[in-house]
Amino acid sequence: MGLAAGLLHDSHSREDIPIEVRLGLADRSAVVHLGNLKLPTPSGGDIALPELTTLHQTITDTNVYRKNLQPVVYVTGDVAGGEESPVYAIMKMSHAIDKLRPPDVKQYKGTTMPERTDRFSVKWDGEWHITVEVFRDLGLAFAAVLVLIYVMVVGWFRSFVTPLVIMAPIPLTLVGILPAHALIGAFFTATSMIGFIAGAGIIVRNAIILVDFIELRRSQGMSL
After folding, report:
1. Domain that holds residue 208
2. What are the tens digits of pLDDT across the range 3-42?
3. Does residue 224 lie within any of the structural domains?
4. 91 and 35 share a domain?
């Protein structure tokens, strides 16, 4: 615990960062260090904390957390600074966690509950879990839409090759999206994924209009 001293306005952070004043970890990790604390008095002097308190050592009950009837230990944290997407933070944390893993302990890192409890496992939850579900659902929906578009275009043009030509530019949009993100230092987030899907829809619509116009002119005798 500490004392709130204000907010830090960092240009690299999306939100203000709270500033807390408290002792360093080495000075607050042992009870003996509390005896060195001085409290201000109304007269302007200082008085030692042990003169006002009496130390009693007791044993408190620890909290036992469970999820889906399995014992868990929660480790929480927030993404702050320039990295607004949890994907990049998780990737960096994974390397550090792998270094802490004992060589004889297998580790499972996913967003679903592990099936076994006889070994240590790491389950990502929170915003990272939501991010994985968003990308998964968007990907599945996008794949289903591509199949439906192919079927509809086949029925319209009476050809199995023409829809492939129309839909071929869709993956090429990543040639512009990914370098553009890297150029301006942006992160590929769920919003980027939605923009990619929206761009694919625009490409397919324009391609259908263009191909239909070409076939109309060719049926009127115009050369390719």
Report:
1. 128-219
2. 788 888 887 777 788 888 887 877 777 777 777 778 888 8
3. no
4. no
Same domain, 51 and 25: yes
217 — pLDDT class (breaks 50, 70, 90) = very high
Tell me which residue of 132, 138, 104 sits closest to 118, measured CA to CA: 104
Domain termination residue (choose one: 43, 60, 77)? 60
Contact in structure between 171 and 197 (CB atoms under 8 Å): no
Q: Are residues 107 and 118 in the same domain?
A: yes
Cα–Cα distance, 131 to 137 (Å, whole number): 10
Q: Do 82 and 13 sit in the same domain of this protein?
A: no
Shared-domain flag, residues 199 and 138: yes
**Residues 50-81 pLDDT 10s:** 888 887 888 888 888 888 888 888 888 777 66
Please check whether residues 51 and 78 belong to one and the same domain. no
Query: Using an 8 Å Cβ cutoff, are 84 and 69 in contact?
Result: no
Q: How far apart are CA 144 and CA 152, in angstroms?
A: 13
pTM of the predicted structure, to 2 decimals: 0.57
